[in-house]
Design a protein that fits this description.
With 208 residues, this protein is α/β, with parallel strands linked by helices. The chain has helices spanning 39-50, 61-69, 89-101, 119-127, 151-159, 167-171, 193-200, and strands at 12-17, 54-59, 78-82, 107-111, 133-139, 142-143, 147-149, 175-180. Strands 1, 2, 3, 4, 5, 6, 7 and 8 form an eight-stranded mixed sheet that branches. Helix 1 links the parallel strand 1 and strand 2. Helix 3 packs across helix 5.
Length: 208
């Protein structure tokens, strides 16, 4: 399989953040990452630093209301996309985002509960990009986030007639490229108050 050259500015980043965050009790994209930024801002800043021209985030109605009120960093560089039916789950949210963005190249797919994104990981994925495959970072043989989807796969996802699908099963129809990285952060999902306290070393408060 021949590698395909793509410049960073031709990439799109799509951040999925439309879940209800039931265990967390607060929308995960709006959790504080540090003293100045929430999860969403941290993730967006990494993609913009990498050079992505287009960064979209899919939000539910509550998330959209919060997003519109907050003076977020890089707001002018973000396309906020409403998922009107988050109960239809992840595949539908992904389709909603892709249809709104209409990306012209490959897409980084990122879950908002995975905030420990690093430039080196994005570069490794881009360096191993193929136009007929998707690229997955691995740490100790376990796949993590984000995933880099070729435009061919993006088109297939967008046109899939059935939203009630498992993305992992859907991707089995395409070639997978695994890229080992020395970064355990690719495996980290913050899904509960206990996990937040474990990784950030401070008490979790719903009112944050």
């Amino acid at each position: 399989m021949e590698q395909s050259e793509q410049k960073p500015e031709t990439y799109t980043a799509l951040i999925l953040a439309a879940g209800y965050s039931g265990r967390m009790g607060k929308l995960k994209g709006f959790l504080p990452f540090d003293e100045k930024r929430i999860f969403l801002e941290k993730i967006v800043s990494e993609y913009l630093t990498f050079g992505c021209r287009q960064v979209g985030v899919v939000l539910n109605e509550q998330g959209m209301r919060l997003y519109e009120k907050m003076p977020l960093q890089h707001k002018n560089n973000i396309t906020a996309i409403l998922n009107p039916a988050p109960e239809k789950e992840r595949f539908f949210s992904l389709q909603t985002g892709l249809k709104a963005l209409k990306p012209a190249g490959a897409v980084f797919l990122h879950n908002v509960d995975s905030p420990f994104l690093k430039q080196e990981v994005l570069q490794y994925l881009a360096d191993n990009f193929h136009k007929q495959a998707y690229v997955v970072p691995t740490y100790q043989d376990e796949g993590g986030h984000p995933v880099l989807l070729s435009q061919e796969i993006v088109k297939a996802l967008t046109e899939a007639p059935d939203y009630d699908q498992n993305l992992r099963v859907f991707l089995q129809n395409f070639a997978q490229i695994k890229v080992p990285v020395n970064d355990p952060g690719i495996l980290t999902n913050i899904n509960s108050p206990e996990e937040y306290e474990q990784y950030f070393g401070k008490p979790y408060h719903k009112s944050l």
